[in-house]
Amino acid sequence: MRLFGCVCGQFHSSGAGMGMSADRVAVPIPFYVVDHPEGVAVFDCGLHRDLVHADDPYRRRLRTQDMDVSLSPEETVTRALERLDIDPAAVRFAVLSHLHFDHTGGLSELPNATIVVQAREWQAGRDDDLSARYFLPRRFSDLGHSLLQIDGEHDLFGDGAVTILPSFGHTPGHQSMHVRSDDGDHILVADACYNCETARTRRFPAHFDSPAMNKSLDALTARCGPETLMIYGHDPDQWGDQPILSSSRS
Fold it and tell me: In DSSP terms, which residues pair with 70 in a beta bridge?
C-alpha cells in the first residue's frame, strides 16, 4: 500500500489567521492519495478547478476578507491523480477532514467516490447557523455523491492500515487520519493543527474552539510512536524543496 501527498494550490492570508508569526503567508493546500489493494482513497480534495480563475465568485468573496488562493491547471486533483496513473473516476473513497472549501473543492472531479465524513460535520454543514459560523459552504461538497457518515474512529478498509480519527475543534466534526503504509507511519493531522509552529505554541486562531483543538492535538500526539510522522494541514516547511511525501511513484 502506498501513500502519496500532492499540493493543490496555495492559500494566502495574514500570518495570524494561520497561527504563524509572519505578517503575510502563502501556505500549501495538500491532499493525500492512499493506493490500497481494496481501492484508492483520497484524504481531502484541495481546491475546486474553477478557482484557477481570479474572477471566480468565491475568490472575489475571499478577497473581501483579506484572503485569496492561487491554483494552476497543473495543480488540480485530476492532474495530480493522472500523474500517479490513477483515473479520478476510479477513486473509491473521498475522506473529508472537514467541509472547508480548500478541503472539498476537488470532489467535483471524483464522480464515483463515496464521501466519508463525521456525521456531526455533515449535519453542521446543513445547519444555516453552524455553516455560517464555521464557513462550511455547500457549493463544493453537496454534489450528490454517495455518503458514509461515521461517528468517531473508523477503520476505512477493515485491516488497520487506514484509521480515521475524530479531532474536533477546528470545525464541529473535523477528523484526521492515521496511515500505516509502505511509505511509513503517518498521521495526517489536517486542520486540527495548521503547522509545526502552531503545534509548538498552541496559538490557534481565535475563531476556532481552542480547548477542543488542544484536546484533539494531545490525542493525536499520544498515538505517535518513535516512527510516526505528523503531517500538518498547511505547513510550508513540510512541502518545500523536499516534500514530506512523494507525489509520484518513482
Answer: 10
User: Regarding predicted confidence, which is higher, 241 or 46?
Assistant: 46
Q: What is the CA radius of gyration of the chain?
A: 16
Q: What is the 3-state secondary structure (H, E, C) of 84-108?
A: CCCCHHHEEEEECCCCCHHHHHHHH
Please give the average per-residue pLDDT across 133-156, as a whole number.
95
Percent above pLDDT 70 for the chain: 100
d(CA 52, CA 192): 26
Task: For residues 234 and 47, give the distance between their C-alpha atoms in angstroms, rounded to a whole number.
Answer: 13
DSSP code string of the chain: -EEEEEEEEEEEEESGGGT-SSSEEEEEEEEEEEEETTEEEEE-----GGGGSTT-HHHHHHHTTT-EEE--GGGSHHHHHHHTT--GGGEEEEE-S---HHHHGGGGG-TTPEEEEEHHHHHHHTSHHHHHHTT--STTT-S--EEEEE-S-EESSSSSSEEEEE-TTSSTT-EEEEEEETTEEEEEEETTS--HHHHHH----TTS-HHHHHHHHHHHHHT--TTEEEEETT-GGGGSSS-SS-SS--
What are the pLDDT digits (tens) for 180-197? 999 999 999 999 999 999
